[in-house]
Amino acid sequence: MRPNPLLQKLGFSKNDRVVILHVDDVGMCHASLQAFADLWEFGTISSGAVMVPCPWFRATAEWARAHPDVDLGVHGTVNSEWDGYRWGPISTCDPSTGLIDEEGYFHKREAPVQERADPEAVRIEIEAQLQRALAAGLDVTHLDTHMGTITHPRFIAGYLQILNRARLPGLIPRLDTAGLIRLGLDEDTATLFAGLIQQLEESGTPTLDAVEFMPLDAPNDQINLARQKLASLPPGITHFLMHPAIDTPELRAITPDWPSRMANYQAFMSQEIKQFLKDSGVHLIGYRPIRDLMRAAAASESPEL
Is the C or the N end of the chain the one with fewer CB within 10 Å? Predict the structure, then answer.
């Protein structure tokens, strides 16, 4: 695959390794917000995304307003995956939309949403989350997807419509069919997406070269694991995601993968990782410069009044 044209637009060479160190699930609970705030101040992350329907969204928005330089997007959310800690849509209470399970919350897993939810209801919900974030004073830098649910053939058109209207980058990896299958897509869906990704890039939509992540099922020795993953990043732009959280009774009660979330946090709060990032030759960026490029390009293409 040819070098990503976005690299040169951002001022990098075609062989540079550029990484967006991204925190998912900000505002899911207090532990996630505090971890993001700590890591942002420590300097080992470059972006994050907030879960607007979750209880700690308002506190996240308050923190973001006090830190206007933060690179924070919206984590488009149509799932509520935990057993005892749930959330639901902010745009509707209507079960006929297919967004709501029998308990009145979002469905826990991706498949029920993708099978039952009306695509227009999904688009309206994600738009509502974006608008609530903007109304709360967030300078939203991007719009990605919780659990990958909205990057599905039934919902992708609505997702792209929102991105285009708001002039926001999304989580769109420039992968071929084989690469998408490795991410877990079936062959038919992967083939469809590979063609769509090529069309988007040809139209000037920013795309990413790779997606990497810190695991949520391996809490041991995450400093060395992070080093290995960062050292092996390919040339191009990688979205590198993690789910850090501080240790709280609430976190332990919410999710069984709390040891790995704490390990994500501890690894990236370490001096070892901070020094490794300085010495690795990897360039850290957030989504803000990508968003600003999109908006500058759109402004230059608009006819003068």
Answer: C
